[in-house]
Amino acid sequence: MVADRRASWLKGVLDLLVLASLTNGESYGYEIAKVLAKAGLGQIKGGTLYPVLNRLEEAGLVAAEYRVAERGPGRRYYNLTDEGRATLAEQGALWLAFDGSVRDVLAQGGIR
User: Fold this and answer.
1) What span, in angstroms and rounded, lies between the C-alpha atoms of 108 and 85?
2) How many CB atoms within 10 Å of residue 107?
3) Are strands 62-67 and 27-28 parallel, antiparallel or unpaired?
4) What angle do helix axes 2-21 and 46-58 make, rounded to 10 degrees?
5) Measuring CA to CA, which of 16, 18, 20, 44 is 20 to 30 A from 85?
């Protein structure tokens, strides 16, 4: 039950987390997944992450560029656009307000 619930929570905020992971500059999918895993969010598989990146690109929130690698397969690098930064600021503030409301209700139930 716990793993299923965490997966649902992550699904609801993954777009925002991906945008936030790009605030320090460009990155590619595997590296984004590593950043999120290091943050304690678990392993984000490509079948979950790449559709998010594609959706963000189609929405104009990230820009992507394919680069051929000297060794191994090429990679698609993603950058946050100005619209992506604005969306991150707006949606991030909404998420933090929501998080605060959830924390308040949990605290009323004795959960700290």
Assistant:
1) 34
2) 10
3) unpaired
4) 40
5) 44
3-state secondary structure 24-79: CCCEEHHHHHHHHHHHHHCCCCHHHHHHHHHHHHHCCCEEEEEECCCCCCCEEEEE
pLDDT at 27: 98
Residues 6+ apart with CB under 8 A from 87: 19, 61
Contact at 8 Å (CB) between 19 and 62? yes
Q: Which residues does 45 contact at the CB level (< 8 Å), separation at least 6?
A: 33
Q: Which residue has the tokens 């104009």?
A: 60
Longest Cα–Cα distance of the chain, Å, equals: 57
Task: Read off the amino acid at residue 87.
Answer: T
Average pLDDT over residues 28-49: 96
Cα(12)–Cα(103) distance, integer angstroms: 17
For 45-103, write each residue's pLDDT tens digit: 999 999 999 999 999 999 999 999 899 899 999 999 999 999 999 999 999 999 999 99
**What type of residue sits at position 65?**
E
